[in-house]
Write a structure and sequence with these properties.
Strand content: 5-15%
Number of helices: 10
Largest sheet: 4 strands, mixed
Strand order of the largest sheet: 3-4-5-6
Radius of gyration: 35 Å
Number of strands: 6
Helix content: over 70%
Structural class: alpha/beta
Order of helices and strands: HHHEEHHEEHEHHEHH
Number of domains: 2
Shape: flat
Length: 352
């Protein structure tokens, strides 16, 4: 290294500029590794690599390997584990990129280093802008969703189900069965499932609105029947999941067997060529890949949906079921009861 050479000062200036640009972006957003730290990392890496390439017996690959190892310890110091969440991973990755940019400058690739800086700043700023936009849209969507639901107690939402009688919660074809064995009305089931999907991971209760007061023993029966029915749906989905996994496993084994047979036939035939041999080998290969795709395709396209349904059924079955009687309906019901107990003479007098 010659302090009087132009290349020496160009490397220093480019290192300061590259480190300063990335450091300004980090410091402007209040993140670790600000301007000074970024410049020093970029400048220090450039000096190490420049020394390694300028020495007569220098091995630049060994220098680069040691730089990568050393910068890893520096980046690890920025990562903090707090309440089960790891913070500072992005800042550690930025330090890693700064070292790579400094190494690029040390090897004399100035244009490439400036391109890396622009790409890094674009990723840090552009991706964060996209994340903030998506987050704002999700918050606005959540506000629209939550406006459809009332708050029950605390932060729990209430999924309201309004019926005139308890019997309307169940199917009509098994009216003679007990509450626990009855199937819930399909419209009610679909409504509960879609509501739970809509509110996402927020806690909720199922609130049944009735025009009349319901005795506690009937409430217990309804709670038990709702829990039992959705446990039953969960059991059906688990059976479907087991069948799908077993089918995928058999298709995978079949595909591997066909693929192995095609390879064995190909090795046994060797240099002997024939149309029937080639057709047999190609047919076995195509059948093997079709079987393998069928095995993994079912998992890819159906597994997430089945697991999601199982979670929804479990959530609904484990949630509290409350009952609510509106004040207007309660007043009307009280008036009706009183009217039934009015003596006939009083009723005649009022009619007169």
């Amino acid at each position: 290294m010659d302090i009087y050479s132009v290349e020496f000062w160009i490397k220093i200036i480019v290192s300061v500029i590259c480190g300063g640009i990335i450091g300004f972006e980090r410091q402007y957003r209040g993140k670790p590794a600000g301007i000074r730290t970024s410049i020093l990392i970029c400048l220090g890496t450039q000096v190490f690599v420049s020394h390694g390439t300028s020495l007569a017996s220098g091995d630049q690959y060994r220098v680069l390997a040691q730089v990568v190892t050393g910068i890893g310890f520096l980046g690890a110091g920025l990562m903090i584990s707090q309440e089960g969440t790891v913070r500072g991973v992005t800042s550690a990755a930025v330090i890693w990129v700064l070292a790579a940019i400094g190494a690029t400058i040390g090897l004399g690739h100035f244009t490439e280093a400036l391109v890396f800086v622009m790409v890094t700043v674009g990723v840090l700023s552009g991706v964060e802008y996209m994340e903030n936009s998506i987050r704002k849209r999700e918050e606005a969507l959540k506000e629209d969703i939550f406006s459809r639901y009332e708050s029950h107690t605390g932060k729990r939402l209430a999924i309201d189900v309004s019926v005139g009688r308890i019997e309307e919660l169940f199917e009509d074809f098994d009216s003679a069965a007990s509450y626990v064995k009855k199937d819930l009305d399909q419209d009610l089931v679909d409504y509960l499932i879609e509501s739970v999907r809509e509110i996402g991971g927020y806690d909720f209760v199922i609130r049944i609105n009735l025009p009349v007061h319901v005795q506690e023993r009937h409430r217990k029966r309804v709670r038990k029947s709702i829990k039992s029915y959705f446990r039953y749906l969960e059991l059906l989905e688990r059976r479907m999941l087991r069948k799908m996994l077993w089918k995928s496993f058999l298709l995978f084994c079949l595909g591997m067997l066909l693929l192995t047979l095609s390879m064995i036939f190909k090795e046994s035939v060797g240099h002997v060529s024939g149309m029937m041999q080639e057709l047999l080998i190609e047919g076995l290969t195509v059948a093997a890949w079709v079987s393998l795709w069928s095995a993994f395709g079912g998992l890819i396209f159906e597994l997430a949906g089945i697991i999601g349904d199982i979670r929804i059924f479990r959530r609904i079955a484990s949630r509290e079921v409350v009952f609510k009687t509106s004040s207007l309906s309660r007043t009307l019901h009280t008036d009706e009861v009183r009217a039934k107990h009015v003596p006939a003479s009083d009723a005649i007098e009022k009619a007169a």
